[in-house]
Fold these 2 entries.
Entry 1:
Amino acid sequence: MQSTNQSATTVQRVLIFSAQTPPVSNRRIYFLFSQHQMEDILMDTAVQSVPLSPSYIEGVAEWHNQVLPVISLEACLGMTSLKSSKTQRLMVVRAIKDDAAPKGIYRIMLRIVPPIRMLTLPIECSPVRDGWIPEKFFTKGVYEWEDGFLVVPDTKKILGGRN
Amino acid sequence: MKRMLLFQVGTRPFGIDLPCVKSIQSVKHIVDEGAEGSNQLTRVFDYKQTSLYDLVSIFEKETAGRDFENEKLIMVEADGKSMGMIVSGIDQIVSVDNDRIKPLPPIFKGASMLCFPKVLKHEDTLILLLAPEGIEKEALQTEANPEFRPPTEDAEIANMNPVIIDTVDIVDESQCESTSFLANLLQTDRDASHQANPTDSK
């Protein structure tokens, strides 16, 4: 029983969804997040745009009585964004920021286009250079896997914004 | 409880603390004096030189086909100074509980945080609350820029030449073991989630 509990706590799942960007080297680009970071996925949420803000911030939206920023990951990383006619969702993601406010937890919403795949680590992938990402400062790493490239965004740095 | 004046700029709703509003006037006479095409004007009100800010031009990218007949000038007092703001229309005055007002998330910086430090939730809609002193500070910072465009990092990106990508280099795998490296990267986020919700591990 103890070993079952141990294995349950060490299993690490990740969420992978397609970036709305043109392929690189004829391979699609995907974003990868830890399942632990994801708190909610919303279907219909009004986003209020904020004048004079960077273009990668789409605006603000409400979630559980909190006002959260809505981010375009593609724009944040400086990548070309393709407009998708598919149904979109907003994914609530949490992260810690050093000079954090209440309880040190900040959340952001990401605009995503389903499907979202959930995989269990380890997955077969190889690190690749991130020189093709204009704003690579906002990434933790880039990997090549069987379906394309996996970009791991650095939510802590995204929360800190561009200084 | 706070009383707020709700107004529109373009099609977007905004709010402002009612106590700082001194008057609401027609904007037509200002247009007749040649307001069109300028974001900041100076006029004499009550024998004082007063700055007027055209929020429609400042906030909206597309201002063609403006309805000057219905636009209003809101005169406010901020930091002991009078100033005016041209808006698309006036909606209503509302009384709201303080707990309906939230801070703008800290990811916003610079001009947006200066001008909209708080957000009001009113009837399932988020309404940005305008800080008039923020508009003035931002205007002073960008005085030399006739388009009132805040100097954000976006400008740098917009000026970048497009990069054509045709190759992706493989990192020397001897330096890092791929899948374990990925797991380590995500470890920080996992720790974060445990701190966010300690019951996760139970």
Note: The mean pLDDT of chain A is 87.
Entry 2:
Amino acid sequence: MSGQTFDAGVPPTADQLTKIVYQNDAGVSAVAVTSGTDTTTSSSYANMAGTGSTTSFSFTKVLAATVVKVSIAASWVSNTAASTVEIGVLVDGTDYPCKRLPVVSGAGVDQVGWAYISGLAAGTYTIQARWRRSTGTGTPTRAADQWLCLSAAECT
Amino acid sequence: MKISYEACSPGDHGERIAQGELDLPDDAGRAAILGALENAVEQESAVVPGSQVRVIAARDGEQVVSHVWDHR
């Protein structure tokens, strides 16, 4: 918090408390598949993958009472036919869907979404990018031109 | 072209359920490669229908495919 002064033994004012901004934000950005392709046609969530591609990171939740906001942005192409893809994250053994998007055959998209996760105790968690083809017959494909951004922040 | 592959159940500690090598035409496209991999892996008795499968394939030591599908 900037611009605020506290004195020992003097409780902060209500105005000062409302100006407190706590930020604990981490993630990965602009991560490409460096070799070959990463594809899925599964209707169940699977980890995003790909050689040299970081698709997860470790996040330390400092406070117990906060909510974790996870954001994901992933580019992909629906090869051979149309597909509807859900992107999400796996945290502490639970999948959290973030965004569903139908895409026509051959089209490339940048899919963005987020999830609010409550009830997580303080501690260190792996935030893993996931996706699934919920409907359609195409082959959702990530390659060198399809980047991934993934972040998490704990919020009050 | 020869493509080596290894299939496993999904997850960080997925169990390996198949491995082998395919000899495909040099001009095989992405769809042909994925189809051939699915067919090869699904002939393995260890693959349970309805289960999710991930296959990693490489050519000349360089990964060319990471593909996930539901075994029919």
Note: The interface with chain B takes residues 35-44, 46-47, 49-51, 79-80, 139, 141 of chain A (CB under 8 Å).
